[in-house]
Amino acid sequence: MPPKDIRDRYEKLQKLVQHHRYLYYVLEQPELADSAYDELEQELVRIEQAYPELVTPDSPTQRVGGEAQTAFKKVTHVVPQWSFNDAFMPEDMREFDTRVKRVLKTDAVEYICELKIDGLKVVLTYERGVLTTAATRGDGVVGEDVMHNVRTIASVPLRLEREADCIVEGEVWMSEKALAKVNREREKNDEPVFANPRNAAAGSIRQLDPKVAAARGLDTFIYDVAQTSETLPETQQEELQYLKQLGFKVNTHFKLFDSIDSVIGYWQEWQHKNKSQGYWIDGVVVKVNSRAQQEQLGYTGKAPRFAIAFKFPAEQVTTVVEDIVLQVGRTGVLTPVAHLRPVLVAGSVVSRATLHNEDEIRRLDVRVGDTVVLQKAGDVIPDIVRVLTELRPKQSKPYRWPTKVAECGDDGSIERIPGQAAWRCVYKDSFAQLRRKFRHFASKSALNIEGLGPSTVDALLEANMVQHFDDFFTLKEGDLLQLEGFAEVSAKKLIDSIKKVADGVSLARLLTGLSIPQVGEETAILLARQFETIDDIVKATEEELQTINGIGDVVAREIVQWFALTDNKQLISRLKKVLQIEKGVRNLFSQSNQLPLVGKTFVLTGTMASMSRDEAKEKLRKLGADVSSSVSKKTYAVVAGEEAGSKLDKAIELGVTVLNEQEFLVLLTQYS
User: Fold this and answer.
1) Residues 178 and 246 in one domain
2) 4 has catalytic annotation
3) How many angstroms from the chain centroid is the CA of residue 156?
4) Higher pLDDT pick, 24 / 635
5) Could you tell me if 580 and 561 are in contact, meaning their C-beta atoms sit under 8 angstroms apart?
6) What residue numbers bound the domain in which 21 lies?
7) Which of these is catalytic: 15, 101, 116, 576?
8) Which one, out of 125, 485, 563, 635, has a CA that is 20 to 30 A from the CA of 314?
9) Dist. CA 664–CA 534, nearest whole Å
């Protein structure tokens, strides 16, 4: 049996997803953004994949759409109406590509990309070229007859160009301009306005009075032939042309690609211009172009295997609060910060969101373990919108504001600022100490985190993104985008730099960065040469430390006392979870004359098949070498890979030794 907490959450998720499906599909009164709902449904799918024995026939994942409303005549679809599986990240698309090629047993696959219009799906039936039925998708088997309203849409042909019997599928949508006009009228009549064009289109097509729909300025794009009395085209691209020939309005922004990377590029391109068309686009539909290959791939219980909806990054998502931490700002003000299960929102991964103050926590009633709806205020700052109390763990307790905070220094006393919702440290100098320690931890003499200079460290502290040293290593690109001066490229560069350090930091550098009293670079090296792991140092006695040449009784006492503190023990425990700490002696300090390449400078140019340039630099530095970006007479050797540039020409001109990739590998093996 699955664990009880998994079963409990699954049952709650089932009920909640079903509830919001009913609000969305049946009543057209959604309470959640589509992206937040998608996150809940995806979590349900993930649980079912991990524990298939939990799946029941009435699970929301086993149904394609919502129920038909009884106010409309029901229509049984001749051709079942499928929905698409969703992809949210490039990795999802690469997995889709792998599955497709595995089933087809070929790499020769073309994909056609079509814009995913955010509207209401309709199914149109024509007999001898005349429109006879128009229905909503409903639950995929039974829809609703909306013929009286669809007939009012100018882009829907009442008679085709040819007398064909066919069933076609498409999207009814409303432009933003038409929405603005409709909402102005509704405001005049004291009616609630529509939140977005999708809701407006759905509400309009399901009016009982066709005059209302006719006045709403609805439009369509038709994209699929479900059935035809004529010969079906052999590709999806030809099918779109066929629809145009019959007289349907087809979106012109479709494009054919022969690689999944090109598909991803198309998706990225439309993320930046999806608001330029006047209608809402919430992603890209990707289909295998060949009909023969589509038929070979077939369908799952609810979706085609040959197509997928590649959604744009969500503006609202759901995630789980894993902790609530009080962080100290520059002026000593305490800010509660929710540490979140990392989630992709509006194009970047976020793991933290401010809760502002004590009053805001009480207003939201947010607790550790809660599932919350998260959005980016102004597309930048993560903000918790609401708590989904239906998914709250049974044992959860309201967050209690503490009476003391250790990071406030002295005795940890805090006080509420008169007339404000904010609290602050009574001891005012704590932030200055914190700033100096964090700057030192990231500096070249300590962990040497490239790009994490004093100003960035200060900004992270002031933005309440880091409270302990280990917090640096849980940062995500989306967290950094909140800071002034950071864009996608610079955020990714810093996160890559942090990950590089996390993948291998010497014991000596870590000891230097911890700001242990009396322990500088030289003492850290002495400790790293004597002890193999950080745990060995934690357990060391004063007497053992005093036996090390260069460490006296004062230094030994400070080391033992520092590691004896509970907060420091907890810090080491957390650091061990986020850092790969190399064993003693293998330090990165180039001034150690025991390393074989001390004093020798290398320059790297071109690319190597066996390792990246960063990996090559790291290997050289571990052997004591310096790595430079420019060639001079003092350069010991230039390592030249494929497509080496002007640095190779300079080396030849100056007579500097040039090593190819194989010779470089031999050198590394020899000195290692």
Assistant:
1) yes
2) no
3) 39
4) 635
5) no
6) 4-62
7) 116
8) 485
9) 33
